[in-house]
Prior knowledge:
The structure is a single chain. The protein is 86% helix and 0% strand. The chain contains 4 helices and no strands. The radius of gyration is 25 Å and the shape is rod-shaped.
Amino acid sequence: xxxxxxxxxxxxxxxxxxxxxxxxxxxxxxxxxxxxxxxxxxxxxxxxxxxxxxxxxxxxxxxxxxxxxxxxxxxxxxxxxxxxxxxxxxxxxxxxxxxxxxxxxxxxxxxxxxxxxxxxxxxx
Length: 124
């Protein structure tokens, strides 16, 4: 959280922005990011996914409103999106594997319980 706030503060210090239109765009994007992130608060993993969406949308707005650097920004955005997709997939895979490991760890105990029950039934 602190690093994100520092990054946003650093964005405020970037100077000069040549035109009023660009300054206005930056102001709107900054307000959008602040409003959306404030609404999220500081929750867990779900919030991280939503933060990616907020910054993705902000990046899209910048690309839509630029002409000079549109190609390079589009390429950067594509790499950003692919990296985020890999991270999100890794998180999903990790959760799946944690659950699977937990269930596999309980299998021996379940097997022993079944075996004991079979022995009990055979004695009857």
